[in-house]
């Protein structure tokens, strides 16, 4: 059962990896076929675009899970660390409200307002299969924002920015590696 929850907790990562691998391979195939045989598959480009769009939205959800979304944080340098997490949580409420409203709008568009005969040009499937990523990804993003705030406020975990680099740790690792040689 823990393996199941591990997969669910990292679902965006697995989806992004799969999408990236497939659309890069498809585009590579397209380049090879176009270069060697002066021929191209029209559906490869269209499918790659749709896969890239899905990749972007699931990637945004994954960034929310990691607490890695862009924020303006300069003003927090003047505040105590305890206050920062509550101010960020308050700001995240607006993000959550936006996501919930966007999920509502996208579901309404896909199931009520979208042209029933609108299909992809070369592959021929209904475009609702492309747009369905919107409510799915924004729902996941909302769940991830709530998870991050739960971990920061309730569990009092320190969220480390994945883009931050501890230069002292890197220097220590480099010095250790030089000393082992």
Strand content: under 5%
Q: How many DSSP H or I helices?
A: 7
The oligomeric status of these chains comes to single chain
Q: Helix- and strand-based class?
A: mainly alpha
Count up the domains. 1
**Which value, in Å, is the CA radius of gyration?**
22 Å
The biggest sheet, with number of strands, parallel, antiparallel or mixed sense and barrel status, is: none
Arithmetic mean of pLDDT:
88
| Beta-strand segment tally | 0
Low-confidence stretches: none
Helical percentage: over 70%
Shape: flat
How far do the termini sit from each other?
44 Å
Q: Give the helices and strands as they follow along the chain.
A: HHHHHHH
Main location: membrane
Subunit structure: The complex comprises the extracytoplasmic solute receptor protein and the two transmembrane proteins.
Family: Belongs to the TRAP transporter small permease family.
Function: Part of the tripartite ATP-independent periplasmic (TRAP) transport system.
Structure description:
It is built from seven helices and no strands. The protein has 181 residues and is mainly alpha-helical. It has one domain. The longest helix has 33 residues. The N and C termini lie far apart (44 Å).
Defining traits:
mainly alpha
Outline of the structure:
Belongs to the TRAP transporter small permease family. The chain is mainly α. The chain has seven helices and no strands.
């Amino acid at each position: 059962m823990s393996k199941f929850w591990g997969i669910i907790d990292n679902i965006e990562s697995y989806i992004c990896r799969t999408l990236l691998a497939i659309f890069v391979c498809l585009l590579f195939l397209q380049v090879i076929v176009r270069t060697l045989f002066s021929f191209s598959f029209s559906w490869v480009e269209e499918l790659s675009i749709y896969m890239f769009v899905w990749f972007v939205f699931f990637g945004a959800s994954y960034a929310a899970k990691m607490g890695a979304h862009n924020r303006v944080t300069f003003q927090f340098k003047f505040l105590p660390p305890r206050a920062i997490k509550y101010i960020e949580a308050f700001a995240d409420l607006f993000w959550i409200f936006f996501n919930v409203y966007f999920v509502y709008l996208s579901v309404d568009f896909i199931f009520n307002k979208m042209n029933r005969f609108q299909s992809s040009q070369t592959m021929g499937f209904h475009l609702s299969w492309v747009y369905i990523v919107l409510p799915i990804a924004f729902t996941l993003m909302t769940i991830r924002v709530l998870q991050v705030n739960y971990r920061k406020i309730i569990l009092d975990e320190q969220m480390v920015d994945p883009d931050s680099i501890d230069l002292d740790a890197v220097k220590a690792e480099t010095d250790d590696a030089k000393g082992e040689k």
